[in-house]
Amino acid sequence: MDITLLICEKCDKKFIQPKYACPNCHNGDLIEKKTSGKGTIYSFTTIYTAPEMFTSQVPYHIVLVDLDNGPRITARMVDGEPIIDRKVELVDIENSVYWFSINKD
């Protein structure tokens, strides 16, 4: 699954939506670019005590993913154990939450 990045025309900073101006230089000229949803786990944490609306999902993993062609993003794991430097791929975006799975390649 691809991911849409926003790229600032002025400073070339890459980030994910929703943004209306560059968080780095505040320029409003942004370009949309589709890129691979593949990346590498940079860091993670496992949630055992969650807010009430998520208690049925515990334990669950929150991961920081360095996208192959983009920025680092916060996401959830769909399956598998997160391991730092493990390759993952985007499988869904739901309510602005990015869901990753272990890359089978």
Automatic annotation (TrEMBL):
<dbReference type="InterPro" id="IPR002878">
    <property type="entry name" value="ChsH2_C"/>
</dbReference>
<dbReference type="Pfam" id="PF01796">
    <property type="entry name" value="OB_ChsH2_C"/>
</dbReference>
<feature type="domain" description="ChsH2 C-terminal OB-fold">
    <location>
        <begin position="35"/>
        <end position="91"/>
    </location>
</feature>
<dbReference type="InterPro" id="IPR052513">
    <property type="entry name" value="Thioester_dehydratase-like"/>
</dbReference>
<protein>
    <submittedName>
        <fullName>OB-fold domain-containing protein</fullName>
    </submittedName>
</protein>
<dbReference type="InterPro" id="IPR012340">
    <property type="entry name" value="NA-bd_OB-fold"/>
</dbReference>
